[in-house]
């Protein structure tokens, strides 16, 4: 390669050891599309090979060393110049010297800590990647390979139901109840809404799942609300004494676990938003935070069976409570 050439004289490729068998997960990119990446969990070893292929065999490639890094970083879109690294590991693969033919280097990062879930949002991106670099005097040759990390949780010990009231004095009084406050990403939200007083003409009622992303600190805090799901509960006017059941399956929506104060850079929270619209297009709503968590890939009961178990607690029988408790024990087991 001539002194003035901008072309690269070698190509780098990173191949994971278990690429043939490792599971892949879909993950959203910055442009909103979804790609598949190799899936890892906290504590798993990341190992493989770095292939350095010379474009002109027989022509030597001088270098100041060859290395591979494992990086976990957070990038805030309004501060793109700064990447906040929370994991940074380096392995030297070769000392300074020269390469006269294509070479392969083995690497292994043992039991790597990956504390947070991969995330691409409106204003922030948390990513993990391997970066292999041939260090050169003028221009380094490097290649980045992204992976996706999922964080798993266990069944929450405390998972109380949500009971709330919404009222406008002498006009409207409703109570709503959801079967629990913490849901895994494939769960079913089961609930009931009771109309105790109805003196306004309600024409429409829905539940929204709202994702709220918060980035930054102090004066530079940004909030982004995104309506992930809209679930129509009722189309038409309710009457006093009426109760309406709710059954909302989460598996079909693009959800992540709840993330609270990740590396003091961002949070992602989820809310159930109950919305009532009257005939004059006035909106009445009540919002309640829920916690979402990711469950490991254990043998799952069918979604309809989960919904049936969850809805039993609203039937008022003593047996239904014990059935729900038993289901919880089975899930945690």
UniProtKB/TrEMBL annotation:
InterPro entries: Arrestin-like_C, Vps26-related. Keywords: Protein transport, Transport. GO terms for biological process: intracellular protein transport. Belongs to the VPS26 family. This is VPS26, retromer complex component B.
């Amino acid at each position: 390669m001539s002194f003035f050439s901008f072309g690269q004289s070698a190509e780098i490729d990173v191949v994971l050891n278990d690429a043939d068998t490792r599971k892949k997960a879909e993950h959203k990119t910055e442009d909103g599309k979804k790609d598949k990446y190799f899936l890892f969990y906290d504590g798993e070893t990341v190992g493989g090979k770095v292939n350095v292929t010379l474009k002109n065999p027989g022509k030597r490639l001088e270098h100041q060393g060859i290395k591979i890094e494992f990086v976990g970083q957070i990038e805030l879109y309004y501060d793109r110049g700064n990447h906040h690294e929370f994991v940074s590991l380096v392995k030297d693969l070769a000392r300074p010297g020269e390469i006269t033919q294509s070479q392969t280097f083995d690497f292994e990062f043992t039991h790597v800590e990956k504390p947070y879930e991969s995330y691409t949002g409106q204003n922030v991106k948390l990513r993990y990647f391997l970066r292999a670099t041939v260090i050169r005097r003028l221009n380094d040759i490097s290649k980045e390979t992204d992976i996706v990390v999922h964080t798993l949780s266990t069944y929450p010990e405390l998972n109380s139901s949500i009971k709330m009231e919404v009222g406008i004095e002498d006009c409207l009084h409703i109570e709503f109840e959801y079967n629990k406050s913490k849901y895994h990403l494939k769960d079913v939200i089961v609930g009931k809404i009771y109309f105790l007083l109805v003196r306004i003409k309600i024409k429409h009622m829905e539940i929204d799942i709202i994702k709220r992303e918060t980035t930054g600190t102090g004066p530079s805090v940004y909030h982004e609300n995104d309506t992930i799901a809209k679930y129509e509960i009722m189309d038409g006017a309710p009457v006093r004494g009426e109760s309406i059941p709710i059954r909302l399956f989460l598996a079909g929506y693009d959800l992540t676990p709840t993330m609270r104060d990740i590396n003091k850079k961002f949070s992602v929270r989820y809310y159930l938003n109950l919305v009532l619209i009257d005939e004059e297009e006035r909106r009445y709503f009540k919002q309640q935070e829920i916690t979402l968590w990711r469950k490991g890939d254990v043998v799952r009961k069918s979604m309809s069976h989960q919904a049936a178990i969850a809805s039993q607690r609203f039937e008022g029988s003593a047996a239904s409570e014990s059935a729900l408790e038993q289901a919880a024990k089975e899930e945690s087991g």
